[in-house]
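1st attempt posting a full record on here, be nice pls
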Amino acid sequence: MPLNTPLRDWRAKTVWMVGASTGIGQATASMLHARGARVIVSARKADALQAFVATHPGAIALPLDTTDRQAVADATAQVLALGRLDGMVYCAGHYRPMRADALNMAELQQHLQVNYAGALHLLEAVLPHLLETTRGDAFVSLVGSVAGYRGLPLSLAYGPTKAALIHLAQTLYLDLHPRGVGVSIINPGFVETPLTAQNQFHMPALMQPHEAASAILEGWAQGRFEIHFPRRFSLWLKALELLPISVYFRLVRRITGA
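the predicted structure (as tokens):
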């Protein structure tokens, strides 16, 4: 049974994709546009947004730094001035590999601000509108990561922020679903993006951004709460969640060499 209203017909819907300059966000915005949605694309890289708009007629570019709460409020006012907003996808992200013996507070704070606080800024600004105007098919999607399931090597800064998004989405669902607003958490595995290009290790089941976008739209069409992929990899990680923590630690050390 779907936990959200299945979203299949994107014609005449307006979706705000935040974090759309590259990777999963850009590919998903492009696929939504191809399905007939009006997409508003935001990111810090204004030139990348303009390049997207140039090849996607009708799309709207709105440069935005989500760590700036007032800028988010101002951008939301611009979005709402365009008319009804049907959904918001928070895909903005920051990642640097980090271990405890090289702890960097500035980097930790940057992960926290971009990956988590930015999502809170968007929710604060957007949710009142969605709650006032919803017809049962409005939605919010947060892009987390399978790295948020349990602790992993090199994920000291990144993993906890994604775990926070997963917890946030679960709580939002309990609050918003009865009010007619759908909530989903998108947990990708390894996708070839500028962020994962930093990794110096083998990335199992590496996907291309357009494959990730297809998985996301399929998840929305099925009304899923959690959209995780590639399933041959993410299901394996979900199974590891069920293990006693001592067994999990031993397996991760053996598999990763950490």
